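Form 7-S
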Amino acid sequence: MALSVSSFTLLVLFSCFATFLVCHGFPVHHNNPFHHRRHPRFASHNYRDALTKSILFFEGQRSGKLPSSQRITWRRDSGLTDGSAMHVDLVGGYYDAGDNVKFGFPMAFTTTMLSWSVLEFGGLMKGELQNAREAIRWATDYLLKATAHPDTIYVQVGDANKDHACWERPEDMDTPRSVYKVDKNSPGSEVAAETAAALAAASLVFRRCDPTYAKLLVRRAIRVFQFADKYRGAYSNGLKKYVCPFYCSYSGYEDELLWGAAWLHKATKNPTYLNYIQVNGQTLGAAQFDNTFGWDNKHVGARILLSKAFLVQKVQSLHDYKDHADNFICSLIQGAPFSSAQYTPGGLLFKMNDSNMQYVTSTSFLLLSYAKYLTYARKIVNCGVTAVTPKRLRNIAKKQVDYLLGDNPLKMSYMVGYGPRYPQRIHHRGSSLPSMAAHPAKIQCSSGFSVMNSQSPNPNILVGAIVGGPDEHDRFPDERSDYEQSEPATYMNAPLVGALAYLAHSFGQL
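Output:
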């Protein structure tokens, strides 16, 4: 049928508009198990406000040339020559925490978890979906630059020891912007496989709304994973003095290979990856009773993700992963026969003193995601004689998020800028020093320490930042020098984005 010029134009316009809606406006829903649930009447927290802030935080961590749409306006351009030491363009990406170094390993994990948050709960995010996509893209644009050369990944910009010897704004940085890479001679399977996971997960986020970009991401993910698997080795060995003790990989690289393969299987549907998982799963530690999930250890995340393939996509050969995932769930259930998790007297999941909140946010996300898959498949978890329903998993996750937002013995929100009481002295250079607008003159390397050691509140509010959180007795001193409890990090926020989207929707706030 021949179309007239005007009807052809209309057709093109309509298809562009449809793409725009998927990309910027109204998300497309598919068999969403949330739609039929009635909203509870009362929530003690404004999860929608917390969701907005949890995504906004990433703008405060941006490196590079900031866009005109930048909402955290006390930040300015920084790191504009990053990569020039090695004649590569490494401008952009995120500072991981309160310092001015770009660490590729946690940045990639942050990207994977932000993407997973959007893949599971993006359909509920309404107006925040576009902001979440932009937070992901800020990272993937950088990861594409870092992986531009075959069999090479640029995994860090900045000398961490020299950076930590200064307390200065990213806009004033004058410490060496040294560039570190992994390649065939000095491999880094954990950072490479995590980067592949990030690119693969993000490709699914952009598949409908920017198919060209999505294809670029997935092609790069395939290449990067091949490199990770072919040249096996830990980046903590070759780059030990630069990446340790900051982001040393203690759990080895096997977990990342399994995790990367799981994401590539999801993104490509290529049977090669399913076969890889079946052949290598056990040797890569699939069934390990290691119940920590964070930037270093991906075992639990891989188990939950692969159990989705079994429960939702009905990939029968992955049925063991449901049992592995159940083991993790049972470890969290107080009073269950295999329970191993510790909780503070106030009820917070407690793994370790240093940045404990990352385990709270990642575990909450996994609980809500797994509850979704179980609901879809009409399954429960059996912990010995204790039957654990999806509803119970949601309740545990909600309790953890509510504690973080202020339902705790100190009545303190551990998200900066949320609620009436939150940390005032976070361990974060840009937040603690006067902004460029307030103090245009350069602040020298060591002169910032007088501010770091002072009791004055930070002048710039890093809205949405999640800090390391209280100790095992629910205590929180709110001291800037206490980086274990007072430092924010991108990988603490990333999984919380998904959890908050789910809670905001389930309480009728979105």
